[in-house]
Design goal:
Blueprint (H helix, E strand, L loop, with lengths): L10 H4 L9 H5 L14 H4 L9 H15 L1 E6 L4 E5 L3 H13 L2 H10 L5 H9 L2 H9 L6 H10 L6 H18 L7 H12 L4 H4 L12 E2 L5 E3 L7 H13 L13 H15 L6 H15 L11 H6 L1 H13 L5 H39 L7 H12 L7 H8 L3 H13 L3 E6 L2 E6 L2 H10 L1
Length: 452
């Protein structure tokens, strides 16, 4: 990555003199904080886009000047204290609007009311809530597959490997974030979240709930190069206390000059924890969990079912670069916020599409059930499980995971599944000591039903 050059003093004075004067109009085209597509680009990206006949350092100086005019201080980090800056970009404005429309507690309640008693949506949401715990672990290197991990969480079986322990820890941490959503942020809550998330994995490696005592912790890239040396261990508690104080300040009053949308503030908390790196290991997981905690606290309950780590895992290099771009450009937090906003946009879109698809399929399925006469042959719980299978949300079912998702007894769950087999809707096969159920092909179901 190419670090930004030193900005020459008096860049606007320089372009008024030879040899730059002849290109004055080209230089003046750069007087905006974003490029023509509204992107807030780092020098590492912009240097390839500056016209070749212009001086890159002067070009960068012009862009930096324009950004400084519209930026605002957002939060303090490090020792000595440095304030991060932030520019509200078109990307951030768009995503803030999306989150308000589709991820608030009110929006989630509206979705639930719109579908009435279609319990398969609750089944869908219970399945999605596990995605963040699994993907956040995989982002940190856990090798367990998503299918195996979900099976472990559904069955509530004990983890067998360190990777599975990591996933269980993240799952507990996400639950902790939800349970503690009404508490103010504190040094104690941050430490407790770490302890909940990493205890029992490798306590000698993680030191659960304890802050690092030395400066040997660094962040490396995939090739072993040091890309971030956190602030010194000395003063960690004081800096986290300062961060907690900032988070606990109300920035929700849109009539004041210090207003910050909760999404921007939550992303800033994510960055700050990663920057301070207060623990020996597990900092990324805690940073992401704290982002969720703040969104829950700010009344965006739909984030229980929206996984950012699923997308971060698929673009881990860009995730790392967003940290680096911020750190190498005077702690301009806009890079990190913009990237996280793009991830949140895609995650919320995915959540919305899953919901809308499920609603459409539920409506079509209900019509088919009624027209075919099969509706009257199914119990309410059988309708739920069948719709989940038909939507593709889950392909295999056991009495254990149906019991968990429907909130019923094991015997009831078993009866639901076996009843679907008797109606020729499901098939079952023995896997180890357990029966596993799956839905027949839809054409086969309709064909079998017509034969009855």
């Amino acid at each position: 990555m190419k670090r930004p050059p030193e900005v020459p003093e008096g860049v606007f004075h320089l372009i008024g003199k030879a040899p730059h004067l002849q290109h004055l109009s080209d230089y003046m085209k750069l007087t905006q904080p974003t490029d023509g597509q509204g992107r807030y680009l780092h020098f590492d990206q912009l240097r390839h886009r500056f016209p070749s006949h212009l001086d890159p350092a002067i070009c960068w100086g012009i862009v930096k000047y324009e950004r400084s005019r519209v930026s605002q201080k957002i939060l303090p980090v490090g020792t000595p204290q440095v304030w991060c800056n932030f520019v509200l970009t078109p990307t951030a404005q768009r995503v803030v609007s999306t989150v308000d429309r589709y991820a608030s507690t009110a929006a989630l309640e509206y979705m639930s009311s719109k579908i009435g008693k279609a319990a398969h949506i609750k089944y869908l949401l219970n399945d999605l809530i596990e995605d963040e715990a699994i993907s956040s672990s995989q982002l940190e290197g856990a090798a367990t597959t998503t299918l195996v991990a979900k099976d472990m969480l559904k069955r509530e079986r004990l983890p067998r490997t360190p990777d599975e322990k990591m996933i269980i820890g993240n799952y507990r941490m996400m639950r902790f974030a939800w349970d503690k959503r009404n508490e103010p942020l504190s040094v104690e809550l941050i430490a407790e979240m770490h302890e909940v998330g990493v205890s029992g994995i490798d306590d000698d490696k993680y030191s659960p709930g304890s802050f690092r005592l030395n400066d040997q912790v660094v962040v490396q890239d995939g090739e072993g190069n040091v890309v971030h040396s956190p602030p010194p261990a000395e003063g960690i508690v004081a800096r986290l206390d300062r961060l907690s104080e900032w988070i606990n300040i109300c920035h929700d009053d849109a009539t004041t000059s210090r207003y910050l949308h909760p999404l921007i503030k939550g992303i800033s908390l994510h960055f700050a924890l990663g920057f301070e790196h207060p623990f020996r290991d597990g900092n990324g997981r805690v940073a992401r969990a704290l982002f969720y905690w703040f969104m829950f606290k700010s009344d965006y309950a739909a984030f229980r079912y929206i996984s950012i780590s699923v997308l971060l895992k698929n673009a881990a290099v860009q995730y790392g670069k967003s940290y680096l771009y911020t750190e190498t450009d005077g702690l301009d937090l806009t890079y990190f916020i913009d990237y996280q906003c793009s991830i949140v946009q895609r995650a919320v879109d995915g959540f919305k599409e899953s919901y809308e698809r499920s609603v459409r399929e539920a409506e079509a399925f209900d019509r088919w059930l009624w027209d075919s006469g099969l509706y009257n042959a199914l119990s309410e719980k059988q309708k739920t499980v069948f719709q989940v299978a038909k939507s593709g949300t889950a392909k295999q079912f056991t009495a254990v995971n149906v019991k968990e998702n429907l909130g019923c007894s094991y015997n009831t769950a078993s009866a639901v599944l076996n009843g679907l087999v008797e109606l020729n809707l499901f098939v079952k096969e023995k896997q180890g000591r357990e029966w596993v159920f799956s839905m027949r092909d839809q054409a086969e179901i309709q064909k079998n039903w017509l034969k009855r």
